[in-house]
Structures are given as structure tokens and as C-alpha cells.
Amino acid sequence: MTDTRGSARRDGEAPVRHAPGAPCWVSLMVHGPEAARRFYEALFGWEFRSGPQQLGPYARALLDGCEVAGIGLLPPDRHLPIAWTPYFASADVDRTAEAVRSCGGTVGVGPLDASDAGRLAICSDPSGAVFGVWQAAAHLGTAVTGVPGAPAWNELTTYEAERAAKFYVSVFGHTVEPEISTDVDRVTLSLEGRPVAAVHGVGNGLLRDRGPHWTTYFTVADLDDAVDHVPRLGGQILGQSHTGPHGRTVTVTDPEGARFTLLQSPR
After folding, report:
1. Is 258 found in the same domain as 160?
2. Which region, left, alpha or beta, applies to residue 82 given φ > 0 means left and ψ of -120 to 50 means alpha?
3. Same domain, 246 and 201
């Protein structure tokens, strides 16, 4: 996988702003945030810092002091899936929200301010896949990638790849690069020639209980060890591991059923 940030961070440097359209954050809203934090702390070694308060009982996960993700309480009046949600950077979240609507998507939450951290909206594409939009202020988003415990990639599973990708091209300015020499219906979304996410079309193979959805990949140092820990911590393993061009992967769930994929890059 590639660095999904607008710019890579070097040791000793301050975090930099993500390029508009680049994945910049992943967030999980659950019924029991304290239990979820214990699960991910044990699995990834995360520590947590509370806030922003406008998002309710919400905390940002840290790796060696660098923010990588967020976990909060799912409000009872918001009917959202228990799922990791990727956020795409925007210079103007209100304008992006209007683009979402004009392209056939839905804005379910916001746009709203998250204290001095930034401004956000939670949206869905025309097929129903949920994603977020983040306009950074004090909080720039994910501060490190490519290390164990950090998000590495995001992939949309939907009915037809190119059709779904057109929405993200229109809203975020992505370009589409089809996979070469494969029968798989998959395309890559890029910004200025740099891959930032993938779209995988599975047609009628899409599970009805899931519908179109985004999946976040997290880097691990040892896939077998991580897979061994998941059920001990209350999660589940979904299928066998798979080896691809970017490394070995396996999809799992946390105790509340939020799906994510573990990735061990080639050594």
C-alpha cells in the first residue's frame, strides 16, 4: 500500500496538512467506546487522548504521540453502522457537502464544527457507502502511516467499480486507474498520480446485510500474531489470510462487529 497522506511526515517534523481529496482520518463510533478502546489498545498499542468534546465521549488514538484514529460513542438518534469510517480532506467542507448532494450522495451529519479541531460532515455515496469529510483546523488528521498500528489503506466494496468511482472523481477530484491484466473489477483512485484508495466491484456478490462499504486496512508487524490475538480480545476472524502484491491480509472484526483488515507488508 502507499502513504495515504497529502505529505509524508519525517521524524522530528510537525504534522502537515493533507491534500484535498486525500484520506486523512479514520473514525469508529460504537455503543461501548471504553471497551472498544481496550480492544484496540491491546491489539495495536494505542493510547488515547480525549476530545473534541463536541463529538461527545470521543478520544483520539495515539502511536508514540502521533494521532492515527478516533473512537467515540454512537449517538442513539443516529442510525449509522458500527464501522470504521474513512474521512477525506477538504479545504471547504460546506462546498464539498454541496458537491456530494449534487452528485447523488447524501449528507447525513453536518457540516458541523468540532471545537477548534476542524469542521466535518458524514456522507454516503449514491450506493449508500458511508464516508466522512474533514476540514482541518487545529487537528490535521492522521499523523503517521506505514508503521504497525497505523492505518495503511482504504478500499470501497460496491456493486460496480467504475460507476462508483465516478462519484468520488466528481466530488474530490480523484483520477481513476483501472487494474491491468486482471479479471477483477477493481480501480484505484489517485491524486496527482499517487494512489490514495481503491474501489472493488463485486456485483451480486455483495452481502445484503453489509451493502456497499468502505474498509480500512491497518498495518501490523506480524499478521499471524495479530490474528491470534483478535479472538482472545473478543473479536472474530473473517476467512483466511490472503497474499497479494502489497502483502498478507486478513479481515477481522472487533467485539462490536466493526470490520477492518490487517496488513503485513512484505519484508
Report:
1. yes
2. beta
3. yes
Mean pLDDT, each 10-residue run in order, the chain (267 residues) = 40 69 96 97 96 81 95 83 95 98 96 92 96 94 93 95 97 91 84 95 77 96 97 96 87 97 89
Query: Would you call 69 exposed, middle or buried from its count of C-beta atoms within 10 A (0-12, 13-18, 19+)?
Result: buried
Widest distance between CA atoms in the chain: 49
Residues 166, 253 share a domain: yes
Q: Which domain holds residue 107?
A: 23-136
pTM of the model: 0.91
Determine which helix (DSSP H) or strand (DSSP E) holds 257, and give its type and residue range: none
Residue 31's CB is within 10 A of a number of other CB atoms, namely: 11
Q: Do 255 and 175 share a structural domain?
A: yes
Please check whether residues 106 and 166 belong to one and the same domain: no
Q: How many residues would you count in the chain?
A: 267
User: What span, in angstroms and rounded, lies between the C-alpha atoms of 254 and 267?
Assistant: 27
Grid coordinates of 41: 489498545
Decide if 229 contacts 142 (C-beta within 8 A): no
Sheet with strand 175-178: strands edge to edge: 175-178, 185-191, 194-201, 151-158, 213-219, 259-264, 247-253, 236-244
What is d(CA 85, CA 26) in angstroms, rounded to the nearest whole number? 5
Which of 73, 101, 136 represents a domain boundary (last residue)? 136
Q: What one-character-per-residue DSSP string does 156-181 give?
A: EEES-HHHHHHHHHHHH--EEEEPSS
